[in-house]
Specification:
An eight-stranded parallel β-barrel has the order 1-2-3-4-5-6-7-11, surrounded by five helices. It folds into four domains: 228 residues, TIM Barrel (Alpha-Beta Barrel), CATH 3.20.20.70; 82 residues, Thrombin, subunit H (Beta Barrel); 96 residues, no CATH class; 97 residues, no CATH class. The protein is of the alpha/beta class. The longest helix is centred in the C-terminal third of the chain and has 22 residues. The radius of gyration is 28 Å and the shape is globular. The chain is built from 13 helices and 34 strands.
């Protein structure tokens, strides 16, 4: 039985992140239909590599539930890395990986195994034309830009035949993905090479064109975290089939909590809409109530899904401040009181913004009503300060334990055979197995007790991946069947079912490109296309591109250019958008999209505003000398 990847089947996929194999296993246990993880090299999160052996271990666990494993191979490659990347793809395929998430089109020009390819968000899919092209050259799934609204997603869905994947939770890159070069320009650590230095999370001073300070020491390029909990039905209707949680750097509590939260929301939708189906097997049972606000987040935004909104920035801090508790009502020598209705616990983590507007965290040793005794009393705490809880100790303790079980529902049918009994076990996906046992048939003396014992022994599936959903007794009369026979039938039938399921699992096939070859929507590519090697260049030339600039990381001719292109607009967030203020005359006259300046230390970035597509360009150039030039990734995965 093969899972369909055809849009008309409307299989929904919950896609969770994994820092390592153990995190991925827990994501599967907590309801993920698929997990994405980094391999030994060439992933856009260079600090979280994983061995082939660990990935194979994760694959084996996922495939028990017909869930899938995607490996992020989404950096751009040096020419001298191409062969190592090709060999790695073969090793990942041999390990059972279901798909690769890629950015570099050079891979499509190489001799690869028939593994499915997904276009990374770093391919910057914002237009129908780009999506159609990637659909036609062999990608099975497109990771859409986070900035797209529902109408744009709907248009892409109508024009393509592949699956559409969309980020629904977690950190937001302020730039269009794949279109940020600040890290490389300042440190030599390229985001497109998996080494982003996250300069967007730094504090800046914002000045207008006349040098007047609009804001000081604020994190003006730091976004709140993505949360599409209330938009899932609309995203489904727009054509999204894969719902992606960000977080390959995040800790295990975040992965468990976020995955369980969206599993419950998607299951509610599946229950209401029978034309939709889950893309893996089994149901997860949790020992906790998922609350995504309890694990790392910068408060929530649904970004641009429903159009531009004013309050999308996490300007005060890029850290996790947590839930607001209330204000400080009293400060003692070794304690402080908070005016709050929230129940607090010993071991909670709380924080507050000090007089310098810096976030200060502390651990609460003892709670006495609303009196909190911290491990170290802060010197600058004042009455009236707002206090937040960023670690709910009791909630975290639940997540530190085994917090989920995933079980595949099965129905059992016990029937008679000429020389004994047969047990057929059928799972929710239609996989079935039958075991037989010779036995002398003896009439039961106590009918009620015999049936109860029979059902009880049949349902003992605790140590397996299965749970009994229904037991059917297709027998001519109630027989006394010894427990040893029932147990043997049950074990043999389940063992056969596991084997049948393993044999029935098929990896998704690689899509073939259309013929004749698709033509790229433009005949000229700038450095923004991230063409870094000869194979990628050959790919675009084959598809009709005539002029191809080198990637920013290899381009020696660029001076000041957009180091970041973003839909986030600091004019809009400060009420200075010309479109919003059209016709409004202020002290300085009609509002226009004049440049602004972001300042951090000696760095000054000119902000230019392209109002037609509603984009902000952060201008800059490479520092001389570059502090750290990232060498080709050293590949250490070969035995």
């Amino acid at each position: 039985m093969q899972k369909s990847h055809i849009k008309s089947r409307r299989h929904l996929e919950l896609l969770a992140p994994a820092k390592n194999a153990d995190f991925g296993i827990e994501a599967i246990n907590h309801g993920a239909d698929a997990v994405y993880i980094g391999g030994p090299a060439f992933g856009a999160r260079a600090k979280v590599p994983n061995t082939i052996e660990d990935i194979a271990r994760l694959v084996k666990h996922a495939h028990r539930y017909h869930a899938e494993i995607f490996v992020a191979l989404n950096t751009i490659f040096h020419d001298n890395e191409l062969e190592a990347a090709r060999k790695l793809v073969f090793q990942l395929y041999d390990a059972g990986v279901d798909a690769l998430i890629v950015q570099d089109m050079g891979l499509l020009e190489m001799d690869l195994p028939p593994i499915q390819l997904h276009a990374s968000t770093q391919t910057d899919i914002r237009t129908v034309e780009k999506a159609v092209f990637l659909d036609q050259v062999g990608f099975s799934q497109l990771v859409l830009a986070r900035e797209l609204d529902l109408h744009s997603i709907q248009k892409i869905s109508a024009a393509t035949s592949c699956n559409l994947e969309y980020f629904i939770h977690g950190a937001l890159c302020v730039a269009f993905s794949g279109q940020c070069f600040i890290s490389h320009a300042h440190t030599g650590r390229s985001a497109n090479r998996g080494e982003c230095s996250q300069e967007c999370r730094l504090p800046f001073t914002l000045e207008d064109q006349k040098g007047r300070i609009i804001g000081k020491d604020k994190h003006f390029l730091s976004m709140k975290d993505n949360d599409q909990s209330t938009n899932l039905r609309a995203l489904i209707d727009a054509g999204v089939s894969s719902f992606k949680i960000e977080g390959r750097y995040k800790d295990l509590s975040y992965v468990k909590n976020a995955t369980a939260h969206y599993r419950q929301l998607l299951d509610e939708i599946l229950h209401d809409r029978p034309e939709l189906a889950k893309s893996s097997h089994g149901d997860s049972i949790f020992t906790f109530h998922p609350q995504p606000e309890k694990t790392f987040n910068r408060s929530a935004t649904d970004y641009f899904v429903n159009g531009r909104q004013a309050d999308i920035g996490a300007f005060d801090t890029p850290k996790f401040s947590g839930e607001a508790l209330g204000k400080v009502s009293k400060v003692g020598k070794d304690f402080f009181e908070v005016d709050t209705d929230v129940q607090l616990h010993n071991g909670d983590g709380v924080c507050f913004f000090d007089v310098h507007k810096a976030l200060v965290g502390l651990r609460v040793n003892t709670v006495d009503g609303t009196k909190l005794y911290p491990n170290e009393m802060p010197t600058d705490m004042r009455r009236g300060m707002e206090v937040y809880r960023n670690r709910d100790h009791a909630f975290m303790r639940l997540l530190e334990k085994d917090s989920a079980q995933r079980k595949i529902p099965v129905s059992m049918t016990l029937s008679e055979t000429p020389d004994g009994f047969a047990l057929t076990v059928t799972d929710e996906a239609g996989f079935s197995a039958t075991a037989h046992s010779a036995a002398e048939k003896q009439s039961a003396q106590n009918l009620e007790k015999a049936e109860s014992s029979l059902r009880e022994n049949l349902s003992k599936l605790g140590g397996t991946d299965f749970i009994t959903q229904a037991i059917n007794l297709e027998i001519s009369q109630m027989w006394f069947v010894p427990a040893s026979i029932i147990n043997s039938l049950r074990r043999n039938a389940i063992d056969q079912l596991v084997q049948t399921r393993n044999e029935g699992h098929q990896r998704p096939p690689r899509r073939e490109p259309v013929q004749p070859l698709a033509i790229y929507p433009e005949d000229t590519l700038s450095y923004l296309a991230n063409v870094y090697n000869k194979k990628a260049r050959a790919f675009y030339e084959k598809h009709g591109v005539k002029l191809i600039a080198a990637a920013y990381e290899a381009n020696k001719e660029l001076d000041e250019v957009p180091l970041m292109i973003t839909k986030h607009c600091l004019r809009f967030s400060h009420g200075l958008c010309p479109k919003e203020a059209k016709g409004v005359i202020g002290v300085q006259g009609t509002v226009t999209a004049e440049p602004m300046t972001l300042i951090n230390g000696n760095d000054r970035f000119t902000l230019k505003f392209d109002c037609k597509p509603c984009e902000m360009h952060v201008m800059g150039k490479i520092r001389k000398p570059v502090l750290h030039m990232a060498p080709p990734q050293v590949v250490k995965f070969f035995k």
